[in-house]
Design brief:
Rossmann fold, two-stranded antiparallel sheet, about 200 residues, globular, binds S-adenosylmethionine, seven-stranded mixed beta sheet, alpha/beta, single chain
């Protein structure tokens, strides 16, 4: 069991356990009252659970079916009623008309190749960018016109290049939190359309 503020987050072997990267995003979410939120790669459901405090509705997706089962258990454990869970590989099982005020993603970002579902929770392939790059190509279509996106990246992913890519998509980008851990630095990138916050 993991404890975050007053929340109990059950953990299991085959689903990513909340770690420094999870807390960096959980502590610095920019979700506002009444927002609709997409929690990409929900894992235990920790980001969705925090977002649900202010959000009107949270859609939490993951490619790992065991994560969705666990996240469902965690929403029940914490008596939360505004989280919808769905299995999806990135945006594949979302409809084009589903649009959000905020998209949150703590992605797999380590530059290693993962074989099983658990390893895929942290392995981002070459430079740790495979899932991040696919996500960046697609997320903007699912943002409302005033929407924003928060993405955890590592110093191992060439964050300057990721920020440049996001700016090329017409977004304002800021590092809104960072943390040094043993062999890398984690950065939380917060991006908005038209500079909204
Ligand atoms: C680093 S973990 C983060 C989990 C949780 N959001 C947190 O902050 O603790 C990344 C999560 O993304 C999921 N994931 C990996 N690739 C994905 C994809 N292509 N589409 C959806 N989810 C994916 C993994 O299964 C894992 O649960």
């Amino acid at each position: 069991m993991h404890y975050y503020r007053d929340y109990k987050i059950k953990t299991i072997r085959d689903v990513y356990r909340p770690a420094e990267d999870s807390l960096l995003l959980a502590d610095n979410q920019l979700v506002k009252e009444g927002d609709t939120v997409l929690d990409m790669g929900t894992g235990t459901g920790i980001q969705a659970i925090i977002a649900s405090e202010k959000a009107s509705h949270v859609l939490a997706v993951d490619v790992n079916p065991l994560a969705l089962k666990l996240a469902e258990e965690n929403t029940r454990l914490n008596n939360i009623g505004n989280i919808e869970l769905r299995e999806s590989n990135l945006f594949r099982d979302l409809k084009k008309k589903e649009k959000f005020n905020i998209i949150l993603f703590n992605p797999p970002y380590l530059p290693v190749k993962g074989k099983n579902m658990l390893e895929k929770a942290w392995s981002g392939g070459e430079m740790g960018r495979e899932v991040i790059d696919d996500f960046i190509c697609e997320f903007k279509a699912y943002l409302k016109s005033e929407g924003g996106m928060q993405l955890v990246v590592s110093s191992l992913n060439n964050p300057g290049e990721i920020m440049e890519e996001l700016r090329e998509h017409g977004l304002s980008v800021e590092v809104t939190a960072e943390q040094k851990i043993s062999f890398e630095k984690l950065l939380l990138l917060s991006c908005f359309k038209h500079g909204n916050k």
